[in-house]
Amino acid sequence: MAIRVVIADDHQIVRQGFRALLEKDGFEVVGEAEDGAEAVRLVKHFSPDIALLDIAMPNLNGIDAAREIQRASPDTRTILLTMFSEDHRLLEALRAGVSGYLLKTRAVEDLVRAIKDVTRGGVYLSRGLSRDVVDAYLARKPLATVELSPRERQVLQLVAEGKTTKEVASLLGVGVKTAESHRGRIMAKLNIHETAGLVRYAIREGIIQP
Question: Which segments within 56-209 are labelled E, that is strand?
Answer without folding.
Answer: 77-82, 100-103, 124-125
